[in-house]
Amino acid sequence: MFDPEQARRRKKARRDKRHARTRVAFFRFSYYDVAFKYFVEQVLDADFVSLPPATKRTFDLGSRYSSDSVCAPFKHILGDYIEALELGADVLVQFAGPCRLGYYGELQQSILRDLGYEFDMLNFSTVTGKPAADYIKICRAKVNPNVSVPHGARQLLATFKMIEALDEVNDFYLANAGFECEPGSFVRTRDRFFDAMRTCTCERDIVETRNAFLDEFRNLPVDKPARPLRVGIVGEFFTAPDEHSNLQLERKLLDMGVEVHRTVSLTNRALHYNEKNLRASVSDYVTYDMGPTSSLTLAAALKYAQEDFDGVVHVKSSGCTPEIDCMTVLARIASDYRIPVLYLSYDSQTSDTGLDTRLEAFYDMLAMKKERG
Questions:
Q1: In this structure, what is the dihedral angle of CA atoms 138, 144, 148, 152, given to the nearest 10 degrees?
Q2: Are 332 and 362 in contact (CB under 8 A)?
Q3: What is the pLDDT of residue 102?
Q4: Cα gap 76→238, rounded to integer Å
Q5: How far is CA 338 from CA 16, 76, 182, 310, 366, in A?
Q6: Residue ranges in the chain modelled with pLDDT below 50
Q7: What pLDDT is stored for residue 100 in this prediction?
């Protein structure tokens, strides 16, 4: 006699045999682990390996097994991968960076295999520019052979919506947290927002969480002057948004009572990027695409200058060629609009003390300039 429950169990057993749940890890990158978790759990139907906050050991590990000639993001990411593997990750994810980062996945995979680690690398740079079917194929091959195409596509769009929400809320935070009346109220609210986003399982959850926390942020008491010091952050794709890589640059500026803006984000560089329009906006300064984030860097700096910001901070990792090329153009913008630019380059020797000293001097200069009118 046919037993439907027994048939269901046999079918489930076959499915489980085909696909034991895979443990997937991304590298640490700003607050985007929230969206990475959603992608792994809702799109790939796998287990997300959550990494604790990075420490000095993380960067030391990455530096130990890296060439001195590679940029700091390579070392940060390699250290992240080693710690993810120590936590039991089966698959490491590398997405196509807009610069040499897009080539790093294969090299990092080779280094980790030489160290004796066993894992798979889901390297999206190998299918960059190819049809969506190729992305699905590599996800099925590396993570889950049972990925549902309709469900996965729907949840991938929700992942993009989550990234937009994360960046939108963080933009509000940066513009206002420096003027909070209750110390720590903004960062506590942002942390709760991130925690709430981690529990979302569909686009509706994401939208409702975004709306609720934007309302909550708007209701936090602030004492913001009519003409606050405004600083725009521009620069390299990885280092500018990542607080561990840039030694808490944004937090330091907020603690000084500065309104902070940062254009470089996954939303602006990956989801809504239009190289042609950006380059047209800076056509008085450049003719060609100078590299992965160059047009965004220059367009953002020019926008900040035209909107009478008090200063611009240019952030890059040491040896980042495209952003080095930007520096001469930034100097022309600074001269034309009489806006100070602070150039920060990060490597394994960059210290908190040195950064604090430079930021304090930059702030004092901006404050005196603003006071003179």
A1: -70
A2: no
A3: 74
A4: 10
A5: 64, 35, 35, 9, 12
A6: 1-4, 6-18
A7: 74
Q: What's the pLDDT at 96?
A: 60
Q: What is the pLDDT of residue 67?
A: 87
Give dist(CA 139, CA 135) in Å, integer: 6
pLDDT of residue 350: 75
pTM of the model: 0.91
The secondary structure element, H or E, covering residue 73 is helix 72-86
CA distances from 295 to 42, 73, 279, 339, 340 (A): 34, 20, 6, 19, 19
- Assess contact for 331 and 312: CB atoms under 8 A: no
Instruction: Quote the CA–CA distance of 87 and 356 in Å, as a whole number.
Output: 34
pLDDT value for 15: 44
- Residue 2 DSSP SS3: coil
Contacts of 346 (CB under 8 A, 6+ apart): 72, 239, 245, 246, 247, 315, 316, 317, 318
Q: Is 281 left (phi over 0), alpha (psi -120 to 50) or beta?
A: alpha
pLDDT value at residue 309: 98
Strand, coil or helix: what is 331? helix
Q: Are 248 and 167 in contact (CB under 8 A)?
A: no
Q: What is the pLDDT of residue 152?
A: 87
> What residues contact 48, with CB distance under 8 A and at least 6 apart?
23, 24, 25, 36, 37, 40, 41
Is there a contact between 332 and 298 (Cβ–Cβ < 8 Å)?
A: no
Bridge partner residues of 230 (DSSP): 259
